[in-house]
Design brief:
Elements (H helix, E strand, L loop, with lengths): L2 E7 L3 H11 L8 E6 L4 H9 L7 E6 L7 H11 L4 E6 L2 E3 L3 H7 L6 E4 L2 E2 L10 H5 L9 H7 L14 H7 L10 E5 H6 L12 H11 L4 E4 L5 E3 L9 H12 L14
Parallel strand pairs: 1-2, 1-4, 2-3, 6-9, 7-10
Antiparallel strand pairs: 4-8, 5-10, 6-8
Length: 267
């Protein structure tokens, strides 16, 4: 099965370079990596141009002009330019474990949508993460900096970073989970059926909208926890605005499966 990884980014070239370095060392090489860039400056383009994908992996920088938050639109465009039957979404500040792609593909038969999670690296460790740490696999080591940061209350959700044997992870996490945009995958068929990301969604929490529409569409969900590990680099998290909170509440009461302006636009 062909796998397309879509990495969303906006003006974080140093962090994107770490994510791409991690994708270059995957045990299962994705067929393509598409950087969905919501209008970053030249530094990001330079990072993508300078990245050497592993043999057999195509890369593409999908960019549009910076006209405010339009992450969902550029992510749809990346999918349009992709060719994989299985779509894997990853944020450009979240470093994937070397088994990340392999874990998503191994479990693709368990559901139409696979919902992963993230380890939250803290403010002390995050600035220390560099290319050498990523390329050497130091973050993934059992007694490496990620675990030590958790012991000193710097990192959060360290248990999610313990990658378990597949059978044990399934036994410990049998129930489906909600989709989080930072780490999930799904079949192209499912993404197309709901018309992808809603390009009219007004800002953040678009992953919640996609989640609700996939559930209404009857697609099967499976948890991918303590597998397909990602390490999320620390940043200040802005609270959701009242407008976004109202919009999410409205969508939770709605019945729609397809959005009007998405992968296919009505006008």
């Amino acid at each position: 099965m062909r796998a397309s990884v879509v990495v969303s980014t906006y003006n974080e070239p140093e962090r994107l370079a770490l994510v791409l370095a991690a994708l270059a060392r995957q045990t299962h090489v994705p067929d393509e990596v598409l950087v969905a860039d919501d209008g970053s400056g030249p530094a990001t383009a330079e990072v993508v141009r300078g990245w050497k994908p592993p043999a057999g992996c195509r890369s593409e920088h999908v960019w549009h002009e910076d006209r405010g938050f339009r992450k969902w639109a550029v992510s749809n465009e990346a999918v349009r330019r992709s060719s994989g039957e299985w779509l894997i979404f990853l944020d450009g500040d979240s470093i994937p474990h070397r088994e990340f792609v392999r874990d998503h593909l191994l479990d693709s038969g368990r559901g139409d949508v696979l919902c992963g999670r993230r380890v939250k690296l803290g403010p002390t460790l995050s600035p220390r993460v560099d290319l050498e740490m990523v390329q050497s696999g130091e973050l993934e080591r059992l007694f490496g900096p990620a675990l030590l940061g958790g012991l000193f209350s710097d990192n959060e959700r360290m248990g999610l970073g313990l990658r378990l044997p597949r059978w044990l992870a399934h036994a410990l996490h049998p129930r489906p989970r909600k989709l989080m945009g930072v780490n999930f995958s799904l079949s192209r068929r499912a993404f197309e059926a709901v018309n992808g990301w809603d390009e009219e969604w007004p800002g953040r929490r678009g992953d919640r909208d996609l989640d609700l529409r996939l559930v209404r569409g009857g697609f099967r969900y499976a948890a991918l926890i303590q597998r397909a590990v990602v390490y999320h680099l620390h940043h200040l998290e802005r609270p959701n605005s009242e407008a976004i909170q109202r919009r999410v509440a409205e969508e939770e009461r709605a019945m729609r499966v397809r959005c009007a302006q998405g992968l296919v636009r009505t006008s």
